[in-house]
Design a protein that fits this description.
By secondary structure, the chain is an alpha+beta fold. Helices cover about 20% and strands about 25% of the residues. The strands form two sheets. Strands 3-4-2-1-13-12-10 form a seven-stranded mixed beta sheet. It is globular. The N terminus is likely disordered.
Length: about 300
């Protein structure tokens, strides 16, 4: 089972791991500024959460990262989520996003291959609101504690990053965020991944609220993977939201959007979390989308 290392311990390893592009977590994460009067939104207890497959930073036109980055920057500034569970981000791309978000954001993540700048399941968070107290990673395989392991026939090594946060605006309430990206090619790997996550959830403090973000590469309500995830006791924020925006397929591949399409990107929570609003964000600038996925968002109260 993973070692639930405290962030303070991991910070001591930062210098040694830097050359391997390990977990980029600033020392300010444990002693950052208190909530600012100038914070752009959500002045109350609501927690704004986004799950976003970023599409890795390629140079291929017409949707290169250089073209998409300004659109991504504007989207994130407009929405200002407190937590962003990202998928597919590679190291320099995550640094770009961190710089664009500003100094009051930080992120936790590591490449899915040992010491690599490969894709991460990075979790961004607003330091004015949240303080990480614990985090870890595991791989979606028969050997989940082996970095880069892939035993289920997945197209790529797949992984999970989870973080335990303290919410300084909600009386110090603690909660977990678990972020993942299931395989695009193998249904078997996706099914095994869902079962492994169900098992790993039992090792967390289940008295605390849990938020799961991810690109699951299967449609909600249409696949056993979805059933397994909800079988752990989680609920789908899209279904439980008091209000929701229009439904679109969350993967568009830079093609015209599909109304009432499949949601393969989800935000799940434990049942006592209240979802006030859920949405699929279609923001674009002059027809340019920030990614080939649409970000999904949920406005939550943890309990």
């Amino acid at each position: 089972m993973p070692q639930h290392s405290r962030v303070t311990r991991r910070l001591g390893l930062k210098a040694a791991l830097a050359a391997a592009v390990a977990v980029p977590l600033s020392s300010t994460a444990l002693s950052g500024p208190s909530a600012s009067a100038g914070e752009p939104r959500s002045a109350g207890r609501r927690l704004e959460v986004m799950s976003f497959n970023l599409r890795f930073a390629s140079t291929t036109e017409p949707n290169s990262w250089a073209v998409r980055r300004p659109v991504m920057r504007e989207l994130l500034h407009r929405e200002a989520p407190h937590v962003i569970g990202t998928q597919e981000g590679i190291f320099h791309q995550l640094l770009d996003i961190g710089n664009d978000l500003g100094s009051h954001y930080d992120w936790i993540g590591t490449g899915r291959l040992h010491g690599s700048r490969d894709e991460s399941m990075a979790v961004f968070y607003d330091r004015r609101r949240l303080t990480p107290t614990e985090y870890d990673h595991f791989w979606l395989s028969d050997t989940p504690d082996v970095i880069g392991s892939n035993t289920w026939g997945a197209g790529f090594a797949r992984m999970v990053t989870w973080v335990r946060f303290r919410d300084r605006r909600d009386g110090g309430r603690e909660f977990y965020v678990l972020n993942t990206h299931f395989d695009h090619a193998s249904q078997y790997a996706r099914e095994r991944s869902a079962v492994l996550i169900a098992q790993r959830l039992t090792t967390l403090d289940r008295s605390l609220p849990l938020v799961v973000t991810g690109d699951f590469n299967v449609a909600a309500h249409k696949n056993v993977v979805y059933d397994t995830m909800l079988g752990t006791g989680l609920v789908d924020t899209w279904d439980t939201a008091a209000e929701r925006g229009p439904l679109y397929a969350t993967f568009h591949g830079y093609r015209p959007l599909t109304p009432n399409g499949d949601r393969i990107d989800w935000i799940l929570t434990t049942p006592r979390v209240t979802t006030h609003h859920a949405s699929i964000n279609t923001f674009a600038v002059d027809g340019q989308f920030p990614s080939d996925h649409l970000p999904v968002q949920a406005s939550l109260t943890l309990g």
